[in-house]
Amino acid sequence: MAAEIFVHPQALVESVEIGAGTRVWAFAHVMAGAIVGADCNIGDHAFVESGATIGDRVTIKNGVMVWNGVTIEDDVLFAANVFIADGTHGMARGDVAYKYQGIERVAPVHIERGAWIGQNVMLMPGVRIGAFAVVGANSVVRDDVPGSCVAVGTPARVIRRWDAGTERWLAVEQAPRPGSNA
Known about the structure:
Elements: E1 6-7, E2 12-13, E3 17-18, E4 23-24, E5 29-30, E6 35-36, E7 41-42, E8 47-48, E9 53-54, E10 59-60, E11 65-66, E12 70-72, E13 77-78, E14 83-84, E15 109-111, E16 116-117, E17 122-123, E18 128-129, E19 134-135, E20 140-141, E21 149-152, E22 157-163, E23 168-171
């Protein structure tokens, strides 16, 4: 671990792959085998599991858990208490040993460059958040969010998209509700 890294005395950092300028705050845990880029900020009570990959200039606020199989590209912001669901099977049966017997338990989550994930968002296994997308607070993301879009709600749905031609946010037309005459 480089000397330019700040690790709070109450944090636990086991990984040796931490980039220069990164700060890890109290009660955070970064496991061996996790990769964390340069100039990141990992808040209090955050957890980064072995096999997680975090790019440069990523902010992970308090209470965020980043599991094995999660890839976070550069310049991403995770607000406080974002939850990433980390498995698709095994745990629901209560068979804890099952997940350690070489059977893949992770549906990878991928967060592309520049995305912003709001407070208390839940990301379900296997989702991809596109570059520069914004996910609003308290949303539950079950499906991929395209780049340069804003998604909100439970389940999250795209409500705006960035139009590079006009350099404006455009509303996304809503599909008619089932049973309506529209």
